[in-house]
Specification:
The protein is mostly helical. It has four helices and no strands.
Length: 131
């Protein structure tokens, strides 16, 4: 169980800065698209060159800015859900360990008895003890 916690901490340390960098890059791209959308002269000239209806490129850039700005939130929500599920898994494992703690003593006694029997009958054989 400690290995699970260490693995999750390692993943968090790796994914955190990566997600931050990705979010910063996407928000910069969203700002660029928004800046293009509010540049009326550029959008009007693009509409005229492409033969598009007036305001078409402005709408496209506003839509792109909105979609690009929301994308980091979608990524973060997916990671947050995964983190919450891992917390639930750790809680479930802790509950199972508490329930089976009383049985653990009897299992360890049984293993030590079996180890003694194996040594009596076959001294070269040894059982592997769980950690």
């Amino acid at each position: 169980m400690l290995a699970l916690r260490e693995t999750m901490e390692r993943l968090s340390a790796v994914l955190g800065p990566g997600l931050l960098g990705l979010a910063a890059g996407l928000l910069t791209a969203a700002l660029a698209a928004f800046t293009w959308a509010i540049n009326a002269e550029m959008c009007d000239s693009l509409d005229a060159k492409a033969g598009a209806p007036p305001g078409f490129h402005r709408s496209v850039y506003f839509g792109a800015a909105a979609c690009i700005a929301l994308f980091p939130l979608l990524l973060a929500s997916d990671l947050a859900e995964t983190s919450s599920r891992c917390d639930m898994l750790v809680d479930t494992l802790n509950d199972a360990a508490i329930e089976h703690r009383a049985q653990r003593g009897s299992i360890l006694e049984m293993i030590s008895c079996l180890r003694g029997l194996v040594r009596i009958h076959h001294p070269s054989l040894q059982l592997i003890t769980p950690r």
